[in-house]
Amino acid sequence: MVFPTVLGGGEKLFGETSTAAKLKLVDSQVVGTDGVIVLTYQAL
Questions:
Q1: How many other CB atoms sit within 10 Å of the CB of residue 3?
Q2: Distance CA 15, CA 36 (A)
Q3: Chain centroid to CA 44: how far?
């Protein structure tokens, strides 16, 4: 799920990574009225 977020400072959740995951967006759905979107990805 994706929640609207304001970017800023703070401790990183996952730390440093050197490789990006290769993903394809296969579906998206808006849930409710508060801007939440469920995104479904498939690994490439």
A1: 8
A2: 25
A3: 17
Q: What is the pLDDT of residues 23-43, one digit of tens each?
A: 899 999 998 898 888 888 888
Alpha carbon dihedral 23, 27, 30, 31, in 10-degree steps, equals -90
Question: Per the structure block, which two tokens stand in for 35?
Answer: 């801007």
Residues in contact with 33: Cβ distance below 8 Å, sequence separation at least 6, in sequence order = none
**Cα–Cα distance measured from residue 24 to residue 43, given in angstroms and rounded to the nearest whole number:** 6
Predicted model pTM: 0.56
Using one digit for the tens of pLDDT, what is the confidence trace for 5-14? 555 677 776 7
